[in-house]
Write a structure and sequence with these properties.
767 residues; Glucose Oxidase, domain 1; 31 helices; TIM Barrel; binds magnesium ion; binds phosphoenolpyruvate; eight-stranded parallel beta barrel; alpha/beta; globular
Length: 767
């Protein structure tokens, strides 16, 4: 049985926290075939560990076993925050014997700490009658269980606390205390010397410099005791602070629209809406009427709303959480530091907890070097903005804020998602020369920009770009794209509460033709759901959003929305051929339905009827591959969306980092499917391209060209590298080997074979 899975079931079906713990110890003991499994929880008010549940020890021990931190083996596990395995516990000098537990009969011991970040929560302990060593596998399993259990314990405590204002205070104080303590404690191993840390490669670039901590975004009341000055005065303070915050946001919005474009500036309209939100303002007002100072009221209301949103598994709402945090801090800043001035960010690497878009804009305006954050993934608004403004960024670097000392320097490697804090001379020299190599390579590749993507034996292919923001169009052009092969249109929808109007859409889409007037621009119909939700049409609360109400299914239920978008595409093309991609097609009926709606839309706009419109099908699930031959009769062209094709064929959730390594594009099933799709398209004289991420891997790109694709659509900065590979290759050599490659039955063999056919490529071409 899969223990984490069983644990989820227990959590879902248990009626109380105690029941969850009892069932957990039982199931772990049973599944690992061990006599004892126990959970110890830390009572932070007294700093002691209590035995909270056990399977195998005498239940009488539940009332009496209490350990201080560092006492016994389990106390040591929690104090030192590390797993401890002992072959014969009663012989260990740390062993502390509780006769009522009858534990002397058990010898082998393994204890694993439970912690949230660095804050200890308790320990999970297993014991066995034999004298033996626990295996690495058993330890790994216990770590996995702890990781899951710790969230349950913490939630239970939070819920318990929220129901009782008194305990809420104690709980929050404890968390704050701990954070303070960990700030003070960290010195021994993380406050000096070089540290290499990993995170997400959110925005490319390799930079070096002094760091500056932008803590104002997580203002707290540490060291401040604030009394209400009376309702009238507090309300006045709040009004002033709100006004100043509005000014801040408008200034940032203006800077964003100067630095990028209208779409990015629009990110901040949701800030302004939140600032005027009557629901939030009323809640704050009510608290001030109850004699709370404005600062506490703002803090409580924004924190509460943020926490509620945080619980919802949805990227859209997660973005709002970052907005809410940002606003909370900005308002508090004006309430608590009326004379305060933010430190200048120029020529420094900014370190912050989160990645609010407003911070990214400020960084651009002030000329900061790069950004490292603790929170944030790859697709947050802040990360997208950093990419489109060319600010190198690494996100999700856990605890970096606590490791930082004032004035520390750092190397930020946004290509690889790495940070080196306090680099020593050797690291600096190594990275400096790497930066030089990257620059040389970039300059060399940039020269290829206007050269054709043609192999040594004369095979040509179109290299197009995948874009999501209109700012990306410039990038695509810069890297020598021959057009836009995939224009993901969701972004302008996601950054607004309301959908953009047809006119706004037309304006945005038209920019692509300004840069690529005579080249193809392929617009994709709105592809919401899966991982991109908009509250007006899709819901993240579905059990399985990737297979749920999404994409084409959703948009076909909204024919008016679809018509508006289709008209905007054709309007934007101003008489040029318009190419439209239909995402996630799984049946002919669906595809024909889109064509019918397109015809209705065009008939309603007689001035558009003379424009040629081509409707292409995206092949991104196994059903579409199976019916490709039939579909080619109705579709004008194909585009293979291999990101989703891999997800649905190999049954690997593309949003789940734990299974990402199973999503191998060199899997024989994927190669064979792509090959069949290309053949199906060509048998009906239809063009076919590939627009999934993996077309950006040079060896894969060459293989796809050998299979006969007419175009590849790539992330813009991968174009030079792929072009270089094509220009050094003999495609016909790969074509000769194609039957053999497609006959191989394992991913490893396929990779090896393809690698052996590749030209010697420069390594380290990453930007
Ligand atoms: C794909 O699925 O390969 C694709 C290009 O679309 P997206 O990544 O936007 O789902
Ligand atoms: Mg897709």
């Amino acid at each position: 049985m899969n223990i984490p899975h069983a644990l989820s079931r227990i959590i879902r079906h248990s009626k109380s926290f105690t029941q969850i713990l009892d069932k957990t110890v039982e199931i772990v003991a049973k599944e690992l075939e061990l006599e004892v499994c126990s959970i110890y929880l830390l009572d932070p008010s007294e700093n002691i560990l209590r035995l909270a549940a056990t399977h195998g020890l005498d239940k009488a021990a539940l009332k009496s076993v209490v350990l201080s931190l560092g006492e016994g083996i389990t106390g040591t596990v929690v104090k030192e925050m590390r797993a401890i395995s002992v072959e014969d516990a009663p012989q260990d000098h740390r062993y502390r014997h509780f006769p009522e537990s009858k534990e002397e009969q058990f010898h082998a011991y393994l204890g694993v700490p439970m912690a949230i970040r660095n804050r200890p929560v308790g320990a999970l302990v297993v014991q066995s009658k034999q004298v033996r060593k626990f295996s690495e596998n058993e330890e790994f399993t216990l770590h996995t269980i702890c990781a899951q259990l710790v969230g349950v314990v913490e939630n239970a405590r939070l819920i318990h606390a929220l129901d009782r204002p008194e305990s809420a205070k104690v709980y929050l104080e404890e968390v704050i205390q701990w954070n303070r303590k960990s700030l003070a404690r960290v010195p021994q191993d993380t406050s000096h010397g070089e540290l290499t840390l990993s995170g997400n490669a959110a925005s490319p670039g390799l930079v070096f410099g002094k760091t500056v901590f932008r803590g104002a975004y997580d203002l707290s009341f540490e060291g401040k005791s604030i009394e209400s000055l009376g309702y009238e005065q507090e309300a006045q303070h709040l009004e002033n602070a709100l006004e100043l915050t509005r000014d801040d946001i408008l200034t940032i919005q203006e800077a964003a629209s100067d630095a990028t474009d209208e779409e990015n500036a629009l990110i901040f309209s949701s800030h302004l809406m939140l600032l005027n939100d009557p629901f939030l303002l009323e809640k704050i007002d009510l608290r001030m009427q109850q004699n709370q100072p404005a600062a506490y009221a703002v803090d409580e209301v924004f924190t509460e709303v943020g926490q509620q949103l945080e619980k919802v598994r949805d990227s859209y709402l997660q973005e709002r959480v970052e907005d809410i945090r940002d606003l909370r801090s900005r308002i508090l800043w004006h309430l608590l530091e009326p004379e305060g001035v933010h430190e200048n960010l120029s020529n420094q690497i900014v370190i912050a907890h989160g990645l609010p878009p407003s911070l990214v804009v400020e960084m651009k305006v002030q000329g900061a070097l790069g950004l490292i954050t603790e929170r944030g993934g790859l697709t947050s608004h802040g990360a997208l903005l950093a990419r489109s403004l060319g600010i190198p960024a690494v996100t999700g670097v856990e605890n970096i804020v606590y490791m930082l000392q004032p004035g520390d320097s750092a190397i930020l490697d946004g290509n690889r998602g790495k940070v080196i804090l306090r680099p020593d001379r050797k690291s600096l020299a190594k990275h400096r020369s790497r930066a030089e190599r990257l620059t040389t390579t970039r300059i060399h590749l940039q020269k290829l920009c206007h050269e054709p993507a043609e192999s040594l034996d004369g095979v040509q292919v179109k290299l197009l770009a995948n874009i999501g923001l209109s700012a990306d169009v410039k990038q695509a052009h810069h890297y020598g794209a021959e057009g836009i092969g995939l224009y993901r249109t969701e972004y302008p929808f996601l950054i607004r509460e309301e959908f953009p109007t047809r006119e706004q859409q037309t304006r945005i889409y038209r920019r692509a033709f300004k840069t690529f007037p005579d080249q193809p621009v392929l617009f994709r119909i709105l592809d919401l759901g899966g991982d991109k939700f908009h509250p007006l049409v899709s819901s993240p609360t579905e059990a399985n959003p990737a297979l749920g109400y999404r994409s084409l299914r959703m948009i076909l239920d909204q024919p008016d929305l679809l018509k508006e978008q289709l008209i905007a595409f054709v309007e934007a093309a101003e008489g040029k051929t318009t190419q439209i991609l239909v995402p996630m097609v799984s049946s002919i009926e669906e595809f024909l339905k889109v064509r019918e709606i397109l015809n209705e839309a065009l008939n309603s706009q007689p001035h558009l009827l003379s424009t040629e419109v081509k409707l292409g099908a995206m092949i991104e699930n196994p059903a579409a591959v199976e019916i490709a031959q039939d579909l080619a009769e109705f579709a004008d062209f194909f585009s293979i969306g291999s990101n989703d094709l891999i997800q649905f064929t190999l049954a690997v959730d593309r949003e789940n980092a734990r299974v990402a390594s199973s999503a191998d594009p060199f899997h024989p099933a994927i190669l064979r499917m792509i090959h069949r799709t290309i053949q199906a398209a060509h048998s009906r004289n239809r063009e076919v391209g590939v627009c999934g991420q993996h077309a950006s891997i040079p060896s894969m790109a060459l293989l796809l060209i050998a299979m006969g694709v007419d175009s590849l659509s790539l992330i813009p900065n991968a174009i030079p590298e792929v072009k270089e590979a094509i220009r050094q290759a003999r495609i016909n050599d790969i074509v000769q080997e194609l039957p053999a490659i497609l006959n191989l039955s394992t991913t490893e063999e396929t990779r090896e074979k393809i690698q052996s056919l590749m030209p010697e490529l420069e390594e380290e071409i990453e930007e």
